[in-house]
Amino acid sequence: MELRKDYILDRWVIIAPGRGKRPEEFKAADNIYTNDAGPEKCLFCPGNETMTTAEVGRVKENTGHWKLRWFANKFPAVDRRGNPTIRTDNKYFTYSDAFGEHQVVVETNDHKKQLIDLSEDEIMSILKVYANRIDDMINQPNIKYVTVFKNEGPKAGTSVVHSHSQMVSLNMVPPDVQEVIDKMKKYPSCPYCEIIGIENKSLRHVHEDDTTITFTPYASRFNFEVWIFPKNHYRSLMDFSEDEMFDLAAAIKRVLRKMKELNANFNMVLFYAPKGEDMHFHIEILPRLSTFAGFEYGTGITINTVAPEDAAAFYRGEHK
Q1: Which of 55, 214, 221, 230 qualifies as a FRET site for 282, CA 20 to 30 Å off?
Q2: Is 162 annotated in the active site?
């Protein structure tokens, strides 16, 4: 067992490998969805467009039908009404209205497909939508950041089976993002550029190509947690060329192909630099194969029963 600290953040984990458990022993139930009502009743399926809020945009197939579409979440966490100014009353009470937009991106018109089932080109189309939506939403008045995330499976927080992701714009930079920005400023150059140079030679290295490097982070919080970084110091998805975007899509699919062997629920989150700031763009994929308990909530320290070195070996296909 080992106590480890994140590369730059004040975030700690205990790596406590589960007595030699093999990856297949972490495998979840065969079907992570048990509440699928089918395409006839699915809000996100073709033909049911009137069951969602008004469409914001779509990507069309050659036939003219949509292959991706996005619209406001029917049950938003934020909206654009109210006062976006964050203020403090009586010294301790800081607040504002929950100001922003909450949108859903339906990733495919096929109810039976999840992200892993899509081709690299189809995943690249989703990444392009992310890039364009971030660029549009971040330029709205009083918006400081747009969080892009995907919840896959009920343990990861999703209630709709049809493959989709979400985008939430905020009137503040999220604290976790702000902490990375603040920590980076203490280094003479980007620490992540140096970290990926180290990890491409470590036991946590998973894969690299001309554009990206994939590795399991040294202080992984989740079983089989994995990060994908561009080798170049890109601040956002808008910095990627067409070919580089394809490489990023292929890296995502490569990870999810292995993760499917575990039938893992997971979260996928994009991290990028807010306006006027510097941060190395990356994607974190967080399998939800374990549950935080009293120790985590009482200490802020995570216990991870899969060493990232073992997780990387699994992603490399070295576990039999």
Answers
A1: 55
A2: no
